[in-house]
């Protein structure tokens, strides 16, 4: 991004906001979501911050709401969506029944079936990351298990998959009554990862979303 000219950056930012406007215009439902939820407004701000993204992934997809935002506002050449849609010991979420999770997966398949640029991976984060060559992604959005050990592991495994100069992002860089009650510790994990890797945080939004972006300014050898 640093190498880009000011004019190039301005053009990209205007184009991104235009795509965001088109996205909101197309999805009446999304407009309602953003009106109701400052969280999604913060997500749009995060997406508008990013430079050109060709290859990206979302880890932890749920119903695909943010995946759709990524797809339509970033217009990547390929978007990988990773979610096990299965419960497991150590999960930081209270999942519904396996039947409901199976239906959720079928719904995701149907939602993106016409999108040539989308690949769905029904895997847990760390296993999915092993399927990628190092440095192939421009951007990864991590929104999976929010317990400290898992969040830290995700940062390591997906950092390897992001190219030098790319971006690693997520949400819930916050400490609230809710995160304490649920035992979530994304903020601690991100802080620890920054200490170890030396990568800087280049974007941060406060509550409620706590959106954050790290820039992989150099290769990280750990
Ligand atoms: C908060 S939701 C994601 C919401 C989505 N990013 C959005 O903004 O619309 C968390 C998701 O993470 C998934 N998940 C839980 N553990 C995971 C893991 N180890 N790897 C990948 N995804 C995981 C859950 O199945 C759930 O769908």
Structure, explained:
A 7-stranded mixed β-sheet has the order 3-2-1-4-5-7-6, with helices on both faces. It is built from 9 helices and 7 strands; from the N terminus they run αααβαβαβαβαβααββ. The chain has helices spanning 6-26, 28-36, 38-49, 65-74, 98-111, 125-129, 148-161, 177-182, 186-197, and strands at residues 55-59, 78-82, 118-121, 137-142, 162-170, 201-204, 212-215. The protein has 222 residues and is of the alpha/beta class. It is globular. The model has no long low-confidence stretch (mean pLDDT 91). The structure holds S-adenosylmethionine (SAM). S-adenosylmethionine binds at residues 58-62, 65-66, 82-85, 91, 93, 124-125, 143-145.
Secondary structure: elements and pairs:
Blueprint: H1 6-26, H2 28-36, H3 38-49, E1 55-59, H4 65-74, E2 78-82, H5 98-111, E3 118-121, H6 125-129, E4 137-142, H7 148-161, E5 162-170, H8 177-182, H9 186-197, E6 201-204, E7 212-215
Helix pairs in contact: 1-2, 1-3, 1-4, 2-3, 3-4, 7-9
The structure holds S-adenosylmethionine.
CATH class: Alpha Beta
Rg over CA atoms: 17 Å
What is the percent of helical residues? Answer: 40-55%
Give the uncertain stretches in residue-range form: none
Count of extended strands? 7
CATH fold-type name: Rossmann fold
Beta-sheet strand percentage? Answer: 15-25%
Descriptive labels:
binds S-adenosylmethionine; single chain; alpha/beta; seven-stranded mixed beta sheet; Rossmann fold; 222 residues; 46% helix
In short:
This protein has 222 residues and is α/β, with parallel strands linked by helices.
């Amino acid at each position: 991004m640093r190498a880009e000219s000011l004019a190039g950056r301005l053009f990209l930012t205007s184009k991104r906001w235009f795509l965001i406007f088109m996205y909101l215009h197309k999805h009446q439902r999304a407009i309602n979501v953003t009106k109701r939820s400052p969280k999604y407004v913060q997500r749009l701000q995060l997406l508008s911050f990013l430079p050109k993204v060709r290859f990206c992934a979302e880890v932890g997809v749920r119903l695909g709401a943010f995946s759709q935002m990524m797809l339509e506002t970033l217009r990547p050449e390929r978007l990988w969506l990773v979610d096990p849609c299965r419960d497991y010991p150590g999960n930081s979420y209270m999942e519904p029944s396996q039947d409901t999770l199976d239906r959720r997966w079928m719904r995701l398949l149907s939602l993106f079936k016409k999108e040539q640029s989308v690949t769905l991976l029904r895997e847990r984060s760390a296993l999915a990351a092993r399927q990628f060559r190092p440095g192939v992604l421009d951007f990864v959005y991590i929104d999976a298990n929010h317990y400290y050990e898992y969040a830290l592991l995700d940062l390591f495994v997906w950092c390897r998959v992001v190219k030098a100069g790319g971006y690693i992002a997520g949400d819930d860089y916050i400490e609230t009554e809710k995160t304490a009650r649920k035992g979530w510790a994304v903020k601690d994990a991100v802080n620890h990862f920054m200490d170890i890797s030396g990568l800087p945080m280049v974007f941060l939004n406060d509550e409620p979303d706590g959106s954050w972006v790290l820039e992989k300014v150099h290769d990280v050898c750990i």
